[in-house]
Amino acid sequence: MAKTSSIDSQPAPQNARVPRRGYVVLLAGLLSNFSVGIIYTWSNIRDVLEAYPEWGVAQLTVPFSIGGLTLALLLIVAGSLQDRFGPRPVMVAGILMVGGGTILSGLVTRTPGLFFITFGVIVGAGLAFVYACPRPAAMKWFDPSRKGMINGLVVTGFGLGALWMGPVQIWLLHGVGLSLEATLAILGTLILLIGLPCAALMVDPPSGYVPPAPPREDDVPLSDGKRHAPSVALKTAIRTPQAWMLLGIYALFCSAGAMVIGSIGSIMSTQTAGGLDGALGTRLAFLLPMAVPVLALTNAMGRSGGGIGSDYLGRKRTFVVMHVVLLLNLFLLQFWTTPGLIFAGVLIAGACYGAALAVTPSIVADYFGLKAYGANYGFVFFGWGISLLLGPQIGSSVLAATGSYIGAYQAAIGLLAISMLLVFLLRQPHFASAVVLDRPAPEPTAIPVPVPAPAPALATAGHSTA
Fold first, then answer.
1. How far, in Å, CA of 150 to CA of 144, rounded?
2. How many structural domains are present in the chain?
């Protein structure tokens, strides 16, 4: 018989409240992701390293690429450890690696090979360990109808991390006048100070806990996305076409988004008529410094909005909306030559990209359950790692060959068309009892309240009781 999980129990009564600890776990998950945004501030670090004689031009993107790939490759390992040992020890290890790796990077800035290891491998591995834990832990505390909201809020923290760390970097480097070495040591220390208390608060619900259900009409059946799915192991999930289709959707959709948001400055400068020296150069110069922080905000809004929206629209409908919006946006973007329109187009692409990072983990939970969620989502997350290579490479190759991004937009539209086809083919998987790791709790049922029958009216002479 399959082992009973923490969600296998009698349903909690409707209108009961989520325990305070559940909200603490959710907030700690958001803040922990918020504390480890060092990889999204790479451009600031790169600008300083570019002046070091030990660094060649071709080496300046290597630490960032290694970090992103390490995150994608190790998430399945980190997720499996989270499934087995719980979120707290895995997350503590991740924070120590991100903070410690950042401090170590400050000691080897003059040795690119060692910097590749400290920043790319150690920090990247730490990001995987941190990223793997908050979502499954928080989802277990809340009703399954709120999976999208939980995923959206938690990954919003990851997207917003650069908003505090980037300005702090600039202030330390240029305002205070510290060296890059001292700056990285301070940032690593701040990561530890913020992240470790959050990791200490990250726990699963106690055995037998069933999340309270929100009010709902008794005669309206729950959709698959609003109930706990039976959980299956990774070896079972990867035998389904749905797991591979979700990986493909992640890779194709995020490639289109990453191609645009990864080259925001280049796109705006290349497509604006005349560039900085043209008639619109003043507007372009005004918008360029705002591009990265505003894009980070838009990306974060897409994450929270996409997750919450998918709880109401459903995952597939939300996927379709995201694809339609991004397709239309990329089609129009190839014709825009004014800074304001280009800026708006890039921000829309960033919002769609962010939404994918909230909707995809939610649909993984819908399809494969929560007991082995870390490993199953880690597998699907390979698609995101592929997008880091595919999308930016398409953009840079087309720009080098043609001097324009128009061909890159057209290639991205092709990728999105294939991705949308996969979305239409998605269906909820069903599993035999022999491979199911747990069984979800039954739906909450309302207790009928007896209604007294109306008292019969007294008959009087000359009056009818009809």
1. 10
2. 2
